[in-house]
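Many introductory courses stop at the sequence. We go one step further.
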Amino acid sequence: MDTQVIEYLHAAQAGDQEAFERLVEPYRRELLLYCYRMLGSLQDAEDALQEAWLRAWRRLETFQHHLSFRAWLYKIVTHICFDVLEKRPRRTLPSTMYPTAHSTEPVSAPVQEPIWLEPLPASWLTDEAGNPEARYLMRESITLAFLVVLHLLPPRQRAVLILRDVLSFRANEVAQLLGLTISAVNSALHRARTTLERQARGDGREMLAALPVDESMRTLLNACVQDWETGNLSRLIARLTDDAILTMPPTPTWYRGREAISTFLVNTLFAHVGDEIGYRLILTHANGQPALAIYRRTSPSGVYRAYLLQVLAIEKASGHIAEATCFLIPDLFPRFGLPSECSS
């Protein structure tokens, strides 16, 4: 522990709240991301971190140097996450909970209970050289596909996997954080890795990676924007893989396959395009993946209002869209620094 940190620690233990803020601020972003991974919710992550700050302030005199200060904060926030997870159902996406829908069936009513994973704004990620979060993103493990599988794990396995494989804590540190033996940590890590590998192979679909935004992807995204805004549905559908998946939380309805998705879009989102309905789009990012903020106009003279946030997973081999997760939650837009209305 360097001299500056020790000075802040001693001052904070003596009641200096400003020193405490300086002590914990360097860890704020990574702890917030850790809470998001554990809980799958932006608001729950923020609430958990706020509670962690209060507990750390109240218990600062109990800090002991056998743990690093960073590890001590992770210990506090991990147990807060465990408390939250005891009271909440696990979060996921519709394709893991409900059967695929027939394209001609009406869309089901939204499920408003807190069971859906929420998308992660790019502003929550850090990319400083050497930062654990940068390594995490490089390992392509912030995607929605990864989080769906991560949230199949029991909370302790989930924590062990993140702490060991993502944040590079040593086994003995994780054992101290969780009050486990080193052998128990290693066993939990093995079970978690096995589950991830089994689920990734389960339906024959490769876990989709967070691909870099290169020139070919920019071309694809710009073309998708044009297709939406001009109502060129046939060209938009042609950009999907044969077995593409379309999910639409908070509704449990989801579709698999180019034909089913096409039928659904023809009968719903594109049914009156060019007549009353119109769309405007803004490119953004979520979970290390490209995303489209889609604004909808419902009358010829109306304004374009926030409608849905579509997170895309691109298949590397074909360059086509393999998954489109459409969050029909306009309240997410401010989280992504997006306006609630879009001009024509």
